[in-house]
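the two lines:
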Amino acid sequence: MSDPYRFARRGSTAEVEEGLGLAPKFDADGLVTCVATDAASGDVLMVAHMNAEALARTIETGEAWYFSRSRQELWRKGETSGHTQRVTEMRIDCDQDAVWIKVEPAGPGACHTGRRSCFYRAVPLGARAESVVLEFREGEKRFDPTAVYGEPKK
Amino acid sequence: MSDPYRFARRGSTAEVEEGLGLAPKFDADGLVTCVATDAASGDVLMVAHMNAEALARTIETGEAWYFSRSRQELWRKGETSGHTQRVTEMRIDCDQDAVWIKVEPAGPGACHTGRRSCFYRAVPLGARAESVVLEFREGEKRFDPTAVYGEPKK
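prediction for all of em together
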């Protein structure tokens, strides 16, 4: 494991966008955004964040590591639930502040609510924002979050 | 157009996660993260941000609106390039701080560098972070960004 986590120096815009160096643009909190999609279906499973250590560990191990903003700690996906994610491919975006990983989930659901994906509700289009009523899509729980994580926060 | 942009009040965790009200969790800068995927291929095209107005306009018009953090302004995707995005579906995640939109792009590329997707480079796995050499994937430019946007920033 690299410690400290050395990435390429961020050079010019052209170097960042057209170069071969991994020079992530961590935000003020030291994080990049990570989108995890299901390697089989292509569906977005979750959006989370990675700090330098989580990014380095994911690259080095091929397993998804994140940084939990709510708990303010490094988080190996599946550490509690067993629902790890094997990364089949990682991409970085043009300005290198977002990562896309395609994953094979080891468990039934990526979402802490028990669903396969965190994106289990659709926002109907064409309505005024204040009159939106969300619609469940694949809303069924694939596992019991209380059994896996304990009692929920109130 | 709704003005001000009224969304549902953020209630308890259970209400936010299991309810039918759209109660986005805007961050300290007033933004939610938005992932845009290609409605046909499922590929992630870009990760951007929406403020309340961008989110409301996207819902109401079915066209993608974002908020540019670098320019600090509301941004109708395609306003300069003509490469608008028609939204075929919008999803919101469990804690309602991230939006996933499936889009039909009107133009050849979502990325300001001229590529179809912003995620045109892969990060090889299994290496130490400091020795990563990015690999281009679909790196060809679909349009000439200088012709569309003018001379790039240095």
